[in-house]
Amino acid sequence: MIAPLIARGRRWALTIVLAAAWPACGDAAATRRSPAPPRSLAPAELAAIEGHGARGTPRGAEPAGGADAEDEGPSRAGPDATATQTDATAAQETATQALPTACANDAGCGYDPASERCGADPRLNRQPPITDQGIVCYCDAGACALLRVLPVPCEGDHDCAVAHEPRPHPARATRERPHEKGRPCRDLTLSTTCERTNICTLRRHACPAR
Questions:
Q1: In this structure, are residues 186 and 210 in contact, taking their beta carbons and an 8 Å threshold?
Q2: What residue numbers bound the domain in which 132 lies?
Q3: What is the pLDDT of residues 140-183, one digit of tens each?
Q4: How far apart are alpha carbons 177 and 28 in whole angstroms?
Q5: Is residue 56 part of a domain?
Q6: Spatial distance between the Cα atoms of 25 and 38, rounded to a whole number of angstroms
Q7: Region (Disordered) spans which residues (predicted)?
Q8: Which of 27, 41, 89, 126 has a 20 to 30 A CA-CA distance from 140?
Q9: Number of structural domains found in the chain
Q10: Whether 142 and 104 share a structural domain
Q11: pTM above the 0.70 mark?
Q12: Does residue 19 form part of some domain?
């Protein structure tokens, strides 16, 4: 008689416990199933997104007409560049043709690097006397002429000589034009030596007037 009552009491107690625990379990399951609310963006992030959209084309996107503009650029600039080059060439040829050459002496001649010619224009470059190599502008038969002197290799003084025509400059010694011998200012005023650079050098001796 007592045992059935005890068993029935246990069932009631278990039922009461389960009934009390059921809402808590339901709330926990609902809590696990409900997603987290979205994170709100900070004001700085919103400003960056809006500014990126206002600036226009995003990175990586090709601007409209970009490739076509690059392709069309050279075609438009080509004729202009050609015309400019043609004008410069024509101007240089005109200047060369108009270069005066009439002269009375060597001092009236100068060198024009643009045309690589000698002329009588006083604005042209006057060249210093030749030492071992360079350009000589001289007056020949009333017109400016050009002499281009190249370096003359040597191993000793005997390899060098003075060439007097058309103007004095160092040259290679030959049987017809041997190395000069004598004392400076007594036997000669010009002489040549082979310098350490192994190039013949012309020396002009400062001799007193006689």
A1: no
A2: 100-149
A3: 999 999 999 999 999 999 999 999 999 999 999 999 999 999 99
A4: 120
A5: no
A6: 26
A7: 53-93
A8: 89
A9: 2
A10: yes
A11: no
A12: no
